[in-house]
Amino acid sequence: MINNVQIIETSEFTNNLTRDELISILEDNSCNEVLYKAADRVRKKYMGDEVHLRGLIEFSNICKRNCMYCGLRSENKNIKRYRLMPDEIIELARKGTEYGYKTFVLQSGEDEFYTVEKMKYIISSIKKMNVAVTISIGEKSFEEYKAYREVGADRYLIRIETTDKNLYDTMDPKMSHENRKNCLRDLKTLGYEVGSGSLVGLPNQTIESMADDILFFKEIGADMIGIGPFIPNGDTPLKNAKGGEFDLSLKVMALTRILLKDINIPATTAMETLNKNGRVIALQSGANVVMPNITEGEYRKLYALYPGKICVNDTPSHCRGCITGKITSIGRFVSKTKGYRDKSKNVLT
Ligand code: SAH
Ligand code: SF4
User: Fold this and answer.
1) What does the alpha-carbon distance between residue 225 and residue 218 come to, in Å, rounded to a whole number?
2) pLDDT value at position 349?
């Protein structure tokens, strides 16, 4: 009888797994180390040893949405809200270039203060610094995504969170799973490098649906996939939920690497919240990207999607040194390019 170890070892070369095989591997913890090592070899073969750093700017924790799992949800009254002015965001990016970042990720809640005009101003100003710009501000119209793209936005991150429509509907009140999928489609049409991803360990989330998540990432032709455990937040309706497990999150990530061999996969901050060496372990199990926080001061703490967020008292300069140390300690190196998936775009950086 073929066992999961053999299935994993074959998949390393075919980059293919059926839904049943994915489920069987996700359920079987005796093959975890074999899986992590196989994913690491796929990463090395297709992405090499370079690690791309993306400087993360969390520019507003104000959100009109009410996702059950998230500390920024509009009904959470226990959080002090903030928003950075456009010129403050641009200044954070400018400082980030001094630390050597070649890509910035601008992330926020869905905050209507940032009109299309304001976003265009922010994006075009940062693009003048000869860097790549990733936006992660939620569900917008085709026209808005088009406007950001026209002023130079390169990438967009919007996680599907789960492909289980019924689960999504209970997690994201008043939001439409169909619309989230449409956003991904629109972004692809507009020529963005598209990032998505999922949460692992939501209440009532099944292993079958996690297998579907991985197959969905392949189906949409994602350029980047971020996977992290769901971490219950005491200020949300899911405060008493069990939350996601580190190993299961790592397995979903490693399987994603095997199936989507040449995409960018970050070692997510949420992984490090559950395991103090989480990002290094993720980098050795298929990941090739890290997104160090370059938000400054009190805002780091206030951007509280989930509790136990790492590095909230650190400075951007400290984070840069710390992560570089971790990367070199495992025989990898920090990339000097902008880290496009299409490597032909990486010349002349
Ligand atoms: N508002 C935007 C971007 C900010 S939220 C959006 O929703 O797309 C960024 C990500 O944080 C979400 O996609 C979600 O996967 C993650 N997140 C939110 N709450 C979380 C929690 N409790 N545990 C782990 N990740 C969480
Ligand atoms: Fe808002 Fe994003 Fe949090 Fe949902 S996950 S409440 S959209 S910040």
Assistant:
1) 10
2) 45
Kindly tell me if the per-residue pLDDT of 288 is higher than 70. Answer: yes
Among 58, 73, 110, 159, which is best to mutate for testing ligand 1, by the most ligand atoms less than 8 A from CB? 159
Please give the Cα distance from 264 to 60 (Å, whole number): 25
Residues 300 and 80: their CA atoms lie apart, in Å, by 12
pLDDT of residue 106: 98
Residue 249: closest CA among 276, 280, 228, 279: 228
User: Tell me, what's the pLDDT at 263?
Assistant: 98
- Cα Rg for the chain, rounded, in angstroms? 19
Instruction: Return d(Cα 74, Cα 67) in angstroms, integer.
Output: 9
The arithmetic mean of pLDDT across residues 280-289, rounded, is 98
What does the pLDDT average to over 194-217?
Answer: 98
Instruction: Pick the ligand that lies closest to the CA of residue 270.
Output: 1
Separation of 232 CA from ligand 1 center, angstroms? 12
Give yes or no for a contact between 15 and 41, defined as CB atoms under 8 angstroms apart. Answer: no
Q: Which among 172, 121, 112, 168 is positioned nearest to 141, based on CA atoms? A: 112
Q: CB within 6 Å of ligand 1 — which residues?
A: 69-70, 107, 109-110, 136, 138, 158-159, 161, 199, 228, 230-231, 233, 270, 305-306
**What is the number of the ligand closest to the CA of 158?**
1
Where residue 175 falls among pLDDT bands split at 50, 70, 90? confident
- Distance CA(288)–CA(79), nearest Å, equals 33
What confidence score (pLDDT) does residue 15 get?
98
The whole-angstrom separation of Cα 48 and Cα 71 is 36
